[in-house]
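Run log, item B.
One chain of 114 residues. Sequence copied directly from the ordering sheet:
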Amino acid sequence: MTHDPQLLQVTLAEAAPVDLDIAFRSMFGGIMAYAEGKPFASLSDVGLALKLTGEGREALLALPGAKPLRYAPDQPPSKSYVLVPEAMQSTPDTLRSWVARCISGLPSKRMRKE
């Protein structure tokens, strides 16, 4: 199934936690979502993918319909981005909890040395 990145942007924005300030930038025919300047989601014709590592990644991959992101069948699977199941895109509360989990796993801001 082909997805519309702009519609996925609306879906993600509506499901994001209210206190989360996210930004979207066009990238390679799709859209990348950022929280505090760090990428956390890829929106493309392949679908909505969240950036997760470790146990979070494994937990999402265990859900029916979730799979590692591949922009094309001949490309290797992503080691950090996981396509969320289609059903999750229509349940904002469930998607919101996964977005929150994704954001909590982002590296903290580095302090600049002056």
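Observations after the first pass:
- Residues 5-70+79-104 form one domain.
- The chain has one domain: 5-70+79-104.
Flagged for discussion on Thursday.
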